[in-house]
Structures are given as structure tokens and as C-alpha cells.
Amino acid sequence: MSDSNFINEINKRRTFAIISHPDAGKTTITEKLLLFGNAIQVAGSVKGRKNDKHATSDWMQMEKERGISVTSSVMQFPYSDRTVNLLDTPGHADFSEDTYRVLTAVDSCLMIIDGAKGVEERTIKLMDVCRLRDTPIIGFVNKMDREIREPVDLLDEIETVLGIAAAPITWPIGMGKAFKGVYHLVNDELHLFTPGQGNIIPDDKRIQGLNTDAARELLGLDWQAFADEVELVKGASHEFDLQAYLAGQQAPIFFGTAMSNFGVREMLNGFVEWAPAPLDRVAGGERIVAPSEPKFTGFVFKIQANMDPKHRDRIAFMRVCSGKYERGMKMRHARIGKDTRIADALTFLAGDRSAVEEAYPGDIIGLHNHGTIQIGDTFTQGEDLKFTGIPHFAPELFKRVRLRDPLKAKQLHKGLRQLAEEGATQVFFPVANGDVVLGAVGSLQFDVVAYRLKDEYGVEAIYEGVNVSTARWVDSTDAKQFAEFKRKYETNLAMDGGDHLTFLAASRVNLAMAQERYPEVNFRATREH
Ligand code: G4P
Description:
Helix content is 29%, strand content 28%. By secondary structure, it is α+β, with helices and mostly antiparallel strands. It folds into three domains: 221 residues, Rossmann fold (3-Layer(aba) Sandwich); 100 residues, Rossmann fold (3-Layer(aba) Sandwich); 135 residues, Peptide chain release factor 3, domain III (Alpha-Beta Plaits, 2-Layer Sandwich), CATH 3.30.70. The strands form eight sheets. The protein has an eight-stranded antiparallel beta sheet with strand order 28-25-27-26-30-31-29-32. A seven-stranded mixed beta sheet has the order 2-3-1-4-5-11-6, sandwiched between helices. α3 packs parallel to α13 and α12 crosses α13. It is globular, with a radius of gyration of 25 Å. 45% of the residues are buried.
């Protein structure tokens, strides 16, 4: 392949994730995007719809359909000359580090807001994460087929609560039962809503120009009021500024209804035109890796165990950062300094996982993991490189795990290590006794682990309270002081699932005391691999 083809392939890529509060419409909009990408024929065929709103059962339900839900971890589809990669953010109710790491693997995000509810709590948290890397955001205000809040108030809320300038691109013509469509403020085009086309690619009925007979006819007596509203909105809101969007300072905003598949096309068109192609990545210190570098690099941001119940395998999801993956190529697993030939990486064309022949920067490929790959690992073509910014967070909730059947200790350890490898929870093995302590960032994760231990490893686990309230990874360059620290605090020390020494403290005060006593020991709240 010539250089210009290679660059062309990179420039075609758009890799993004959807951020939203549960129930805002992420699943629904994902379906519609796949419909536009011709990845599915009829909406509703992607995954079983939820029939229970409770988060735990929602998760379990999904897990039961794992074979399907897995393919929705990463969805690749073509649209308008682009190759779009949509990365699913985990759906559980707790905000977890899983979600955070998925966001490190994308170049931009789509934010969905329920028009009736406005900016909700999870969206605020996810926006904070996006801000760490100035990720460009496109907003979609959903559920226009309902009586939602005043669109002007919603823009205002986005600006004040999320701290990002909002630039409306489309503007709704009415709402609820009186919803007629959207007006494209930049193109001066009206897009007309036809109900009942939610499961297909809807007709694209347009009127060019608001100041036309056709538009006057459509809006009837409401025309003048709408024209006045548009003038007002244009005057009072930000004009779209591509540079400000790319810098993560301004979000273009679209209105529509995902359920009726309206307004989604306009948003998707804006997305493929403006969203950034694969961006440079920092690999520690001075080293910045550009996607156009000829040599392959990539990093693992997610590991999922037993994705396909038939295969009982574990897949490491890798974002390609530079160069090109070709089937059968040799890659260097940088952390362990080992070269391996990769012949069976997977791609995730929506609805199906299949062997991938080639992949470009921005693409996600799946590697079969036999226990050697960890989250954060970098793969290269020889260079000793390490992409940064894919951390583990110290958990905040802890429980001791006990077995109903003590003979299953081996399976328990294996299960917990593998689940910890996925990054949803963390496991600690205290140095001084045979306990097993599970740590999580959110409480739902304990239920998930218990369920999966039983389902996948045949282990029944019981949780008990444990006198731990915070954890820190410890290391030091002062060998003498470190040895003394380890002696003194032996009962507080544990190895985590990746064999890193951890300090488990009963309280913040205990932690502060240890820190004061041993100033040469680093107590880290996050750990990079
Ligand atoms: P999520 O993945 O973000 O959690 O949201 P999801 O797409 O599952 O949507 C949550 C609920 O909102 C669903 O209703 C869905 O049908 C509804 N919804 C999504 N988009 C729109 C829209 O544009 N207008 C309206 N009125 N509703 C919308 P549900 O009752 O939970 O599920 P279902 O029985 O409809 O499948």
C-alpha cells in the first residue's frame, strides 16, 4: 500500500464513544447509527431490549446474551466515505474505571442528553473525564417527540453545568405532538419529521431556506414566531467554531429523537465531517506517537473475560495508534519485552467478530489473551515504548471474600485475578494471612463479581465486612526505609491481582500516619502499568 493510501485510511477513521446518563437513549441511538452504517437492517436487532430497569438485572441480562453484547463493545461501520469506530462504554449504574479507560481510547465523544431531564449526574462525571484530555464533544438533545424543557434553557444548562460553550447546529421546530422537524442553522435547511420511521433509514425530506414559500406553508401561522426564535437563538448563542470544538471548548448541539430516528442523520453528518481523525498519543516523556508513523503501535485499554461462552476466552482490546496491523505480523509486547506473531486478532464489524486482515490507527482489534496481557500494555514493532494515561484507581470499597466450599480456593483465585484483569474490580491478597479482599470503586461491582464467579467459575462466594477503607500502591527508592516500612506494616500489606505491593489502611488517619512516618515511601492513589 502506498503512503498516500495509508494516510487516506487514517484520515477516514473516526473513533468515538457515547457519554450519557442511563436512559437518555444511548442504546437507541447506537442502533440508529448502525442502521445508517448499514451494519444492521432493522433497528431493534442489535441486542435484546431491556425489560427490567434495575441496573443489576440489566447487567445480568446483558451478560446472558454475552455472545451478542460483546460484539457491541466495539462497533465498526462505514458511513459517507468514513470508517467509524464506536466504542461502548459499560452500562452499569456505577461509574467505573472501565468507562474511564474506554474514554482514553477514543478521539471524540457524542454526548446524549434527555431533553426532558437536562444535564444529569453521570454525564457531568463523564464530561469531567473528557476534559482531562480536552476530548471534542458533540451533543445530541434527545426525545424531541416528548414535551421536553425549553431548548434555550437546555443550552444554558449545558454551558453552566458542564462548563462548555454550546453551539446549536440544528434547532427544533416544535416538540412533542407538535414536533415538525429541525432547522439547520448553518445550512439554512429545514428537515421534516415523518413519524413512524423509527426502525428504518427515514426519508430525507428537506426544504432549502426558512424564508421560502414552502417553509411558510409548512409552518403556517407559526412561521413568524419560529423565524423570530431563530433570530434570537442565533443572536444569543455561540456560532459554531471548528477549532473551539476540536480544542474541547465548544460543543455543537443537535436536536432530535433517537426512537423515531430523526435528527440522528444530521448529527452523524456533522460528526463525520468535524470529528477528529486519529490523534497523536503520548508515550511518556518527550515521545509523541503520530498515527502516520509507519511502524505499528497500540495499547490495551480493556480486557474482557469469557466473552463468548462457547470459547471461554479472554480478549484484550487494543487501540491501534500508529502504523498498520497486518495478519500474521510480529509485535513486541513492550512490558515483558517479548515478540509474538499475531495471526488471529479480531475485528468488530457490528454484529460479528471475525479475523481481521488489516487495521489502521483509530481501529480497535481484539487479541486473544492467555493471561500475559494487562490493561495499559503497549505493543510495538520493536520500540520499547509505553503509552501513558491508562491508570488504575485505588478502590474505595472493600469486602473480604469467603468461599462456601473451601475446596474451591484455586478457582476463586483464578476467577478473581481474571476479573480484576478486566479492570472492573481489584483483588488483594494480604501478605500476612490467606484472606482474599475485593476492592471496587462502586458497590454494584460486588454483585457483578459474585454473579460472574458463580456463572463462569462455579464458585459461590460470600462477602464479609473487612477493616479496610482505603488502598495505596507503595514503592520507594530508599531500600532501607522501604524494608523497615514493610516490617512495621506487614499486616497492612497485600499483593494486588497484578502482583503489585499495596498498603491497605483501616482509615485515612492510618494512611496519613504511615505517610508521615515513612516520607521516602510513595503511596500512590493510581497505578499505571
Ligand atoms: P440508555 O441506553 O441510554 O440507557 O437508553 P435507551 O436507549 O435504552 O433508552 C431509554 C428509554 O428511552 C427507552 O425506553 C427508549 O425507548 C426511550 N427512548 C430513547 N429515545 C427516545 C426518544 O427519542 N423518544 C422517546 N419518547 N423515548 C426514547 P424504555 O421504556 O426503557 O424501553 P423500550 O421499552 O422503549 O424499549
